[in-house]
Amino acid sequence: xxxxxxxxxxxxxxxxxxxxxxxxxxxxxxxxxxxxxxxxxxxxxxxxxxxxxxxxxxxxxxxxxxxxxxxxxxxxxxxxxxxxxxxxxxxxxxxxxxxxxxxxxxxxxxxxxxxxxxxxxxx
Length: 123
Prior knowledge:
This protein is mainly α. The protein has one domain (2-120). It has helices spanning 8-34, 42-46, 48-65, 69-83, 87-90, 93-120; strands spanning 2-3, 6-7. A two-stranded antiparallel ribbon has the order 1-2. A hairpin with a 2-residue loop joins strand 1 and strand 2 (6-7).
């Protein structure tokens, strides 16, 4: 089955290191948030890290794997699912649905932007 011209396996191969990096960020964030000495502003500090990784994923998929911008955006959409697994721990059902929608759109745009940068600054 193909999505935007590539199989899910091709997307997985292109983004597996980014999946692992974001998953590690999420685990650290959840453990930190559940600890007793969690500073309220730490989430603000942890937010840019997955965003940078998703932009980097868009860059790498375009530059190293020959993806186009739509496919890079789809990689961002897939990476959204790695970031949402912990949402039910901290948010209500409607908050989770809203956050998933916003993150999916935002991450697809960020990954496509990373891919656009890769096209703009070719080797």
